[in-house]
Amino acid sequence: MIDFSATAVEVAPLLLGGVIAHDSPEGRVTVRLTEVEAYLGDGLDPGSHAFRGRTRRNDSMYGEPGRLYTYFTYGMHVCANVVCSPAGEASAVLLRAGEVIEGLELARSRRPTSRSDVDLARGPALLVKALGIALSDDGADLGTPPFSLAPAEQRASGIATSLRTGVSGDGGRPPFAWRFFLEGEPTVSPYKRHPKLAAG
DNA sequence: TTGTAGATACTCT
DNA sequence: GAGTATCTACAAA
């Protein structure tokens, strides 16, 4: 089992190749994680929601490790994180992309605009949608039903890192290269700088 | 295949 | 009141 009381930067590479499953009345969807990002807090990480301290939104980021932190962004999208570090410390791993390996039909019905199976969970908001995670799942324990999270069967090879995608301000610049992904995976989203950084 | 613009509503200042 | 850890559609090559 993964030790989630370590920091997000240490946990992130361990999650690659691992599988997350969610049971719902409609059925079960399982996703193999191919891309994640680490976020810290409390002044350590300018790209993190917790950079300016604890607020109502990021409250679960300070909670028990191994739980879910969901948040709403851009007026229409939900993103999911795995909370790391002991309670009281802000640290989380954003689930960015994965490959649907179980419940393909259900995932397809949740993502009618997706053209191919590769696109089903190619992006943070898409991953959440394919799994059927809702904003109300914030704080849920990933180790107990309806969720389950298993580490990779064997240590994933070909792990690469890069700058984080879509993060504005200094959090999208070095030394914050805390995006981890499996090399050669078609489900990894293409790297895009934040529009603000691209302009500068 | 690559690049650009628009939509959307919640949170923090 | 302004900014946002994004996705989709459309246009051009």
Structure, explained:
It holds the Pfam family Pur_DNA_glyco. InterPro entries: Formyl_transferase-like_C_sf, MPG, MPG_sf. Its EC number is 3.2.2.-. Keywords: DNA damage, DNA repair, Glycosidase, Hydrolase. This protein has helices at residues 8-15, 104-110, 124-131, 195-199; strands spanning 19-24, 27-39, 68-73, 77-83, 92-102, 147-150, 159-162, 179-182. The protein has 200 residues and is α+β, with helices and mostly antiparallel strands. It has one domain: Methylpurine-DNA glycosylase (MPG) (3-methyladenine DNA Glycosylase, Chain A, Roll), CATH 3.10.300. Strands 1, 2, 3, 4, 5, 6, 7 and 8 form an eight-stranded antiparallel beta sheet that branches. A hairpin with a 2-residue loop joins strand 1 and strand 2. The longest helix has 8 residues, at 8-15.
Could you provide a short overview of the structure?
With 200 residues, the chain is an alpha+beta fold.
